[in-house]
Amino acid sequence: MKNRIILCITALLLGSAAFGQATLELPYQIHTLPNGLTVILHEDHRVPMVAVNVWYHVGSGYEKPGRTGFAHLFEHIMFEGSGHVAEGDFDNLLESVGGTNNGSTNTDRTNYFEILPSSALDMALFLESDRMGFLLDAMSPEKVDGQRDVVKNERRQSYENRPYGMAWIRLMETLYPKGHPYSWPTIGYMEDLTAASYQDVVEFFSRYYRPNNAALVIAGDIDPGQALERVKYWFSEIPAGEPAPEPASQPFELSEPAYLTLEDKVQLPRLYLAYPTPSFYEPGDAEMDLLAAILTDGKNSRLYKKLVYELGIAQDVSAYQASRAMESMFILTATARPGHSLDELAAAIDSEMAKIREEPPSSRELQRVVNQRELSTLRSFQSLNQKADALNQYYYYTGNPDYANEDFSRYTSLSVDDLSAMARRYLDPAKRVLLSVVPEGQTELAVSKKSIKP
Amino acid sequence: MKTPILTLCLLLGAAIAFAQTADRNQYPSAESPKPLQLPEVQRFKMDNGLPVYLVEQHELPLVQFSLVSQAGSIYDPPGQLGLAEMVADMMDEGAGERNALELSEEIDFLGISLRAYANREQLGLSLFTPASKLEEALPLFADVLLRPRFEEEELARKRTEALVALAQSHDEARTAAMEAFNQLIYGKDHPYGRSASGTEASLKSLTVQHLKDFHREYLTPANSFMVVVGDIGREALEQRLGKALAGWSGGQLKTQMIAPPSEKKGFTIYLIDKPGAAQSVLRFGHPGVSRNTPDEYPISVMNTILGASFTSRLNQNIREEHGYAYGAASFFWQPRYQGYFIAYADVQSDVTGPAIQEFLKELKGIREVSEADVEKARNYQALGFPAEFQNIESIAGNLSDVIFYGLPEDYLNRHIGKLLAVTKEEVEAAARQYIHPENMILVVVGDRELIADEVEALGTVKYLSIEEVLGAVPVIEEKK
Which of A75, A157, A306, A367 to mutate to test the interface with B (most CBs of B within 10 A)? Predict the structure, then answer.
């Protein structure tokens, strides 16, 4: 049997009940080419397909002032052809062999992937290597202009023309101090998108899109030895660059709650709370994930049960830990039902948050959210590209591509006291942003300062 | 002796150069793809007549159960719109020995996923579980399927939730556009045209008796089938299902003829005002085909060229050439009876007129395609198909469609071959037969003041308000 993903289900005794606890593994080989490119290979022969997944270690947090949105605009430009690939042929060639592809940008990294028949692996490697090595040979100001318009429409579609769409942008601006790498939106400001130039593309490519600043994962129906040979063939000639500069982390602390109100074309007011929290994989990060689930996942979660199920003052409530390299944030959102103000919501939320700070959750609550987390991991590891992305993510943030089991152990090793301790430390009502989005002309529905008692 | 040595040096040089420098002067040619080995489908009937379809997949210790009933919103009686969706929504709000909170606690704590859903044609119950948890999971599945409580208090809660969601839909230009599109294609009272999630009046009139009646009539073995995919063998499955579903019996197969929509005459634009909108939501379309159309494959390849891939003509034109939108696409909605064709994008407000003209150009132009267009599109659809078999939910979904729509038993096995056999002539014939830009509607939701002049220059314009489409914003009674 070849090296497939192995999911060993081992029954362990946890407290009084027995649960299947997964040992999650993503077996891999890792190699570094002389030019610094990291290559990670994972075999899975369930379907005759392969996922090719490249992470460049640059995101919107690396952008310079006046050029917000550039990392994402650059991502778009990467699909517009390179030295040996005519404009449009990146997609033409992949579709011709049955492949799909995409990319995404966040604050920390930019990823690109292709999912295609294993017999066509060479096509993906050719295309990825050509844009890594020869993008600028085919670059022109017109291509920058074309994608500038597309990205502006992406911003209109995903933010400006969407109910509550501008909340996220205002929330980041308020939570982070001016100049902090996470204080501006990944999609960018319109005027900065307008200002982005051909020269910016040249600089950004030379600085960040070097093999030594990237990692390539191939997951699927491969022979690792042969796949590595093909990677060497296509990527070896690309020269290494200088080590890429990293944005300086700017530790900060909120000294008091920050209030902000935004009017929008919406029927119902919505409250956003944002708390600064520990960065990805640091102590406290896993606790925030589980606290978010205990608070808002499922009918028995604390806030859903109280605000939606029992009181009926909210239409929805959700929370999550947005984990990132420099700082994370814990985001909580709730939408008021007609006839209810955000003050009412905030009071009910704060009362539940106080409880979880003062008294640990039950061990059953903890086990419930860990079990749900296990299920979602098992589900996602069916997909070749989700495994490839996980290998890249673990490699980038922890240095170990197969961190899956350690990652899951972060959750199983926590005690209920750990959760309360971290809730006390980070979910502090005196150190957060409160953003009210209200229907136009109804600012009286916003959360008021006096109603919140830190 | 110079020559042989020189030759040897040249050969060596070539070999070294080959090892070090990739040949980028021509595009790599892909080897022919490996055949997709489709897993065998085992078919059997339970004693109560429920057909069961099993695909064993033992690589991962996971199992998907999909129960599908012919019980979607098309079966909502007049005046009870939203019933099927409400039944699905209420099935896990208390079942068997457990109330809503207790049931949810069992499911979440066990670490499984169990969900009911309804769409136009189906009501389904879906269980995704680690194989190690089957013993506890199946009785919960059976409770939700067979013994939902449908309690008064929970219905009151769910009703308010649905009414508030209906109020919120007034915020969403895309929702208003699609509701209007459905109403205009089929008519406001047609089973495919009316609201699937209900109106203010219908939601307020739903009672627990309506829910119970619907459940008793439609959620029966005679009106359902089960697909199971994953790490379980037939013997174990039969034994477990027999035990879990004991006592479930009876019912009738529910079929309902759905009248075809009237053909559209001419090009009519319906403009819905959304003051201050940053984009205009465009939805072009006309009646289309059913899932069982004999022209499935030519239509699929034709639509891939038109609007169902990144390199499709609509996306290339609207997004890549003009930068009018983040993306543009088209698809055929193919239910059991006659569906529709739709082409769509959300375009920057100030280019609404030019964007509409570009759409019209592409919808007319699709009647001519090249051999290269056809080859790329059929390869894209056919050779990427094995990706559907990565996860058990998707295998179950593909198999469910084959069963629900009565497609041939070997449908999935023949899918790739059928796609690869489509010719240029068939694609052009499909375009002529199934794309009619001259007899079509266009719904626009956007800033009337800004776009009305441009739009009126392009055809007959009728004005609608969001309230005419979605009804007035519902009045939500305060919970005391």
Answer: A157
